[in-house]
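Protein Record: Sequence and Backbone Structure Tokens
======================================================
Scope: a single protein chain, as residues and as a discrete description of its fold.
Tokens: labelled as protein backbone structure tokens, with as many entries as the chain has residues.
Position: the record begins directly beneath this header, with no further notes in between.
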Amino acid sequence: MSTRSPSSPLSAKAPAALVGLLAGGAAGFLLTEAVGAFYAFVLGRTLDVDGTGVLLAAFVAVPVICAVLGAVIAVRRAGQDRRRDHRGC
């Protein structure tokens, strides 16, 4: 019989979720900055987020969506790694 107490799946996946959240948010921020730089340098036009609410919403929503996706992907991958470790592969 094992003397180790089983850890909660939530506490085991929390660090992965945090890392995924931060990495996804950073990726989303870089994506919005890349789009802004593309418009500024390649097309010669600046994006005015004060002019339209839709553009401002997109520049806020993209990093948030990427952060959530990053957290979900990280938690799923952490769950797969834990299952693989328990099978002995």
Summary: The chain has a mean pLDDT of 81.
